[in-house]
Every structure is written in structure tokens, then in C-alpha cells.
Design goal:
- Belongs to the ornithine cyclodeaminase/mu-crystallin family.
- About 35% of the residues lie in helices and about 25% in strands.
- The strands form two sheets. Strands 1, 2, 3, 4, 5, 6, 7 and 16 form an eight-stranded mixed sheet that branches. It has an eight-stranded parallel sheet with strand order 10-9-8-11-12-15-13-14.
Length: about 325
């Protein structure tokens, strides 16, 4: 059986952000309707704070079955390598044979920002146009692109703890996206007055304080994905109407929520619903222009599998990628 292999460059070619946003809206809706299975990820901790994780999932309506294997190496920050390395593998739903092998770094970069765009589309004010980005790495780039797809962003302020990184991001992003992008010297200077905030850092302690948030702000919190790390302080979580990609994941993995709960400022009922439930109309979203809304993203295996299924079809239709013969066959006579 033929297996398609796609590189980072080929994935970027086949998966425009606008299309990925629509794909993520569809798959999260399917998940909310029990048309998909996406169990908690499993991770093995390695020396130096690294994690090797596995994220299986299946999307029943598309007969899509897959697995992401991801190696998270935080100390890659500042090197040529992204902190998230790995593969997404798509399997044939009838035989289990591998159908596609994809670079997980690019899949993760695009689909994570696309999910934040879905959340922004259903939670942020229509006129939200002032964007703050905390962090200047891969997710900062894809989140800027994603926010421009769903809101009329006219000004961007970016903060990174490394001055050279935030200056380079601002200069290059302004040229690439034809929007005003300014590097600022503190997280507070980026956030105050913003109507949209994306936190895309590797921080383990809060970089966003609730007292900085203006009424009506929408926040996409992306960076922290383990119980011991958070980007938001307890005040930011408590002030906001909180939505998650998956309640099970948030209760097991989200340091932003779990540490605020441990401090006694929120309880489990503070999670108002999942993003897919919002899309289905099963829970209430923003109630007024003054509401602060928060989407806590952890990332789900079903998002990766849906992207892999889409890219497999696009690769076969366009001839992009390398095709190899994989799929174990029984050896005759044994």
C-alpha cells in the first residue's frame, strides 16, 4: 500500500490557514457530537524537562485513524530547532496500514493557531482590532496569521523576553503581513488596551496578569500545557469566561486552570464549556461587550488526525510529496 510522506514545506503549501480554520471548526463540532474519539495524551518525561508524548485519535465520519508522536524539548528555544518535534501518522481505518507520515512541527504550528482562530471567531468582539502577542516564536507567527484571518487587526504589539527576538519579529511581520507591528519592552505594555491577546510563550510562571486586561478582551492562552506551568495568573483566569478545547484535558493538564483552582479563586464550574460545544450552540459564549473571554488551548490528537486526513487527500490530488510502499504483508509460507 502506498504511503505519502510530507515535509514542512509541502504541508505549508497544501494547508493554507483559512482552510485549516474551517477544518478545525468541523472536527471540534464532530468531537462535541461524539463523532470522534480523542483520549488524553500519554507522555514520558525525559531528562532536562523534555517529554515524549503520544496522541491517538479517530474521526468516525471520515474514517480517519491516526497518531501523533511528539517530542517536546523546551531547551530548543534559541536554537534552529522548534521545541516541538515529531510525526503525525495516518492509518487505513480498515487494515491499519500507514497511509501518510507528516512532519508534526508544521502540523502543530498551523492547527494550533487555527483552533485559536475558531475560538476568536466565536468569542471575540466583532470589532476587535488591537492584538497583543506574548512570545516571538513559531506560534507567534502562526497566531498573527490566524488572527488576521478572523478579525480586522490594525495594530499588533509583541513582547518577548529576548529583545532581539521581538525586534526581529516586529520588523519581519510588518513586512510580511502589511500591518503595524511594534515591539514593546514589557508584557504589560503589549497587553494594556488590547482587544485580543495571544500568549505563545514557554513560560512556567505568569506572564499575563488579570489586572492588565481591558473590559471586552479575548485571550487565547496557548503556551503552557502541563499542570505545573502557567502563562496567566489566577486573577486573569478568574476574571474571564473560560472555555477549553476539552474539559478532560483541562482538568488533567492545564496549569493555568489547575494552579488558579489550587489558590481557591475558581472551581471546576468556572469552565463554561468546550469550543465544540460553543460551535454547536450547546453552551453560552460572550454575553456582553464588557466580558473578558478566555480560550485555554492544550491541543488534541483529533486536530492532528483531521489535518492528516485532509493533507493525505490533497497530496494524492496534487501529486505533492513522496510516495513509498509501506504496510506489512504476510510472508507466504509462514
Amino acid at each position: 500500500m502506498t504511503t505519502v510522506i510530507l515535509t514542512q514545506r509541502e504541508i505549508r503549501q497544501l494547508l493554507p490557514m483559512t482552510e485549516c480554520i474551517e477544518q478545525m471548526a468541523e472536527v471540534l463540532t464532530a468531537l462535541a457530537r461524539d463523532e470522534a474519539t480523542s483520549p488524553l495524551r500519554w507522555g514520558m518525561r525525559l531528562a532536562g524537562g523534555a517529554i515524549l508524548g503520544m496522541m491517538p485519535a479517530t474521526l468516525h465520519s471520515r474514517r480517519a485513524l491516526g497518531l501523533k508522536i511528539v517530542a517536546v524539548f523546551p531547551h530548543n528555544h534559541g536554537t534552529p530547532f522548534d521545541s516541538h518535534q515529531g510525526l503525525v501518522t495516518l492509518f487505513d481505518a480498515e487494515t491499519g496500514a500507514p497511509r501518510a507520515i507528516l512532519d508534526a512541527t508544521e502540523v502543530t504550528a498551523i492547527r494550533t493557531a487555527a483552533v485559536s482562530a475558531v475560538a476568536t471567531r466565536v468569542l471575540a468582539r466583532e470589532a476587535a482590532d488591537d492584538l497583543a502577542i506574548l512570545g516571538a516564536g513559531t506560534q507567534a507567527w502562526t497566531h498573527l496569521e490566524a488572527m488576521l484571518c478572523v478579525r480586522p487587526v490594525r495594530r499588533v504589539r509583541v513582547f518577548s523576553a529576548t529583545p532581539a527576538n521581538r525586534e526581529a519579529f516586529a520588523r519581519q511581520a510588518e513586512q510580511r503581513f502589511a500591518v503595524e507591528v511594534r515591539a514593546v519592552d514589557s508584557a504589560r505594555a503589549a497587553v494594556e488596551g488590547a482587544s485580543l491577546v495571544c500568549t505563545t510563550t514557554s513560560a512556567r510562571e505568569p506572564v499575563l496578569l488579570g489586572d492588565w486586561l481591558a473590559p471586552g478582551t479575548h485571550v487565547n492562552a496557548v503556551g503552557a500545557c502541563v499542570p505545573s506551568a502557567r502563562e496567566l495568573d489566577a486573577r486573569a483566569v478568574a476574571r474571564a469566561r473560560l472555555y477549553v478545547d476539552r474539559c478532560e484535558s483541562a482538568l488533567a493538564e492545564s496549569g493555568d486552570f489547575l494552579l488558579a483552582r489550587a489558590e481557591g479563586v475558581v472551581d471546576d464550574a468556572h469552565i463554561l464549556g468546550e469550543l465544540g460545544e460553543l460551535l454547536c450552540g450547546a453552551c453560552e459564549g460572550r454575553r456582553s461587550d464588557d466580558d473578558v473571554t478566555l480560550f485555554k488551548s492544550l491541543g488534541l490528537g483529533i486536530e492532528d488526525v483531521a489535518v492528516a486526513h485532509y493533507l493525505h487527500g490533497r497530496a494524492l490530488a496534487t501529486g505533492v510529496g513522496v510516495q513509498v510502499e509501506l504496510g506489512g504483508r504476510r510472508r507466504l509460507g509462514e
